Amino acid sequence: MTKKKSRLIALVMLIAAAAFFIYALHHPEASFPWSNAVTYILYGLYLIVMLVMAAAPFKKK
Asked: Which residues are listed as membrane-spanning (predicted)?
């Protein structure tokens, strides 16, 4: 994967996370059908993938 493509994916993921955060602030009545533990695991995995995609171009071969 190229540097540009990896950074673009990370940027799109960051924008999607920000949009979801803004939506969640304006709709506190919405919720997920599972426990908070599952939600936190999904948030953590999303964050890890986003950070890996952002940091991947800086990895030395």
From this structure: 40-58
What pLDDT does 24 receive? 87
CA proximity to 41, closest of 30, 53, 52, 49: 49
Q: What is the mean pLDDT of residues 30-41?
A: 88
Tell me the HSE value of 34 on the side-chain side, using a 13 A CA sphere.
Answer: 6
Do residues 53 and 8 touch, judged by C-beta distance below 8 A?
no
CA atoms of 28 and 54, how far apart (whole Å): 30
Q: Poorest-confidence range of 9-13, 17-21, 27-31, 47-51?
A: 27-31
pLDDT at 19 > cutoff 90: yes
Residue 47's Cα: distance from chain center in Å? 5
